[in-house]
Specification:
single chain; Ribosomal Protein S5, domain 2; five-stranded mixed sheet; four-stranded antiparallel sheet; 9 strands
């Protein structure tokens, strides 16, 4: 099968992490899975939710929000606030982002603070939830590095990398990291959220008007595991580079990304 962008069946889209994209956030990154671009920010608040105080829960908290900007799709997507409520898909995804990061963050080490993760889709071409989780991990790592540098915590609360990737069956072929045309036509669509040690955080898999066998699922799982390993390696490299160049101008990084001088 020939993929729309010429990739091999087990090949990820080009992955890029552009750090310090939102200078006012404690940590931030523009996470790019091919033509899917998500601005991921991590902001530290020096308090915890009231329910934690009322129940005397120790440690900190981590929460996440997700949204697609109006121009992220070909047809303008109305903001949730204009509808007066968060749509079901956005609610599901932001809860998934929160669960994914809480699985690898030591909230006790964070102290009486809240890490607020915001994922805003700048451009959507499939896999916005997987890019959001993967980018949110990098943004969180950068935020924690600032806390350590400021002497507010002794070590990073991030115990392991966590990343997410999609896989699916399209025209009877198993594919890794689906873009929008592939996702739209896929007979089976799956998302894998895993940490760098290969432990599962969440599995999502569904047949689109079809069923799939255990053998097919195992094939998708192998693709997902391959993708997660690659993503975690890229995350660590991006975090190291971002920490070393913390003063880099975000606009200069964007100019480099788009090939401008």
């Amino acid at each position: 099968m020939s993929r729309p962008d010429g990739r091999a069946t087990d090949q990820m889209r080009p992955i890029k992490f552009i750090p310090h994209i939102a200078p006012n956030a404690t940590g931030s990154v523009l996470c790019c899975f091919g033509k899917t671009w998500v601005i991921c920010t991590a902001t530290i608040e020096e308090n915890v939710p009231r329910w934690m105080k009322e129940q005397n829960v120790s440690g900190g908290w981590l929460t996440a929000e997700y949204s697609m900007l109006p121009a992220s799709t070909h047809d303008r997507k109305a903001r949730d606030i204009s509808k007066g409520r968060l749509d079901g898909r956005s609610s599901e995804i932001q809860r998934l982002i929160g669960r994914s990061l809480r699985a690898v963050v030591d909230l006790k080490e964070l102290g009486q603070r809240t890490l607020c993760i915001d994922c805003d889709v700048l451009q959507a071409d499939g896999g916005t939830r997987t890019a959001s989780i993967t980018g949110a991990c990098v943004a969180s790592a950068l935020a924690f590095d600032k806390l350590v540098g400021a002497g507010k915590i002794k070590k990073t609360p991030l115990r392991r990398m966590v990343a997410a990737v999609s896989a699916g069956i399209c025209k009877d072929e198993a594919l890794l990291d689906l873009n929008y045309p592939e996702d739209k036509d896929a007979a089976v669509d799956a998302n894998f959220v895993m940490d760098e040690d290969g432990n599962f955080v969440e599995l999502q898999g569904s047949g689109e008007e079809s069923t799939y066998t255990s053998a097919q699922f195992n094939t998708l799982l192998a693709l997902g595991q391959k993708g997660i390993k690659e993503l975690c390696d890229l995350q660590r490299a991006a975090i190291r580079a971002a920490v070393e160049s913390a003063s880099t101008d975000a606009l200069q990084s964007l100019a480099t990304m788009f090939g401008k001088r």
